[in-house]
Amino acid sequence: PLITSTQMFKDAKKGKYAIGAFNVNNMEIIQGIVEAAKEEQSPLILQVSAGARKYASPVYLKKLVEAAVEDSGLDIVLHLDHGEDFEICKACIDDGFTSVMIDGSKYPFEENIALTKKVVEYAHSKGVVVEAELGRLAGIEDAVNVSEKEATFTDPDQAVEFVERTGVDSLAIAIGTSHGAYKFKGEPRLDFERLEKITNLLPNTPLVLHGASTVLPEFVKACNEYGGEIPGAQGVPEDMIRQAAKLGVCKVNIDTDLRLAMTAAVRKFLVENPSVFDPRKYLGPAREAIKGMVQHKIKNVLGSSNKL
Ligand code: G3H
Ligand code: 13P
Ligand code: NA
Ligand code: ZN
Question: Which of 84, 160, 222, 251 is 20 to 30 A away from residue 110, measured at CA?
């Protein structure tokens, strides 16, 4: 069935590995991810953004994920990614999601607490778990000096107060990652000291790393070789993800790497087979590319193979 992340986070924290939370938008993406998790016997979180709900329509994604559960026999967490207000969280909870994120990170501390608390109260009354976010993810231009860093990165003492006062189940933190394919201008750098402090102060709170794609050069290269234009893309090195998992990060959010893998496969196929116009012929390889990417993450980066 659809399950919450409570037990899987406990196990991950103890075992110092992380669970991949993969963004889903259509059937092929869901199938590729679930096939990989099944082969690896890995716990799995599928997450749906507001944009994904709008693209596919809520009922389609819900039914596709239910089909994946039925077909694979796996227990899967169905999570709302970056819920921006109480209403979307409530809609997903009422829809049968087992986990929601309320992202109040753009609000002042007290407003973030009040909003998060309201979602936690409703979610917990329905047996659903909640992720919140404190601190803001750096954009490529952000956090260039110490005072800006202090203003955007998660403050460890505030994190303790936030968790205590909201009763939230997991916490997304800002330590230098950002969304998308352009995460760093120069050398990639994350604030592991800060992460360690937060983990020591909140030993029982599963931490979440957003913006955790690696932007693997071979996939950027493949996109560019077959007509794409994505220059200067750079993500979080795999070693840093492994390090974060050792330091208390239990959930690693990945979307960009799936997009790159899928796009590289479609571009390559269409360039190499100009006369083919059956969508199954290019969406099949796209699904395989998603599966390969997810299997690589689970096995070689997150360490969640054989943890069911
Ligand atoms: O955090 C953002 C995720 O990559 C989802 O992106 O809002 O375009 O679906 P999206
Ligand atoms: P990436 O853009 O690094 O894949 O991050 C995805 C994410 O954080 C979704 O919430
Ligand atoms: Na999320
Ligand atoms: Zn995110």
Answer: 251
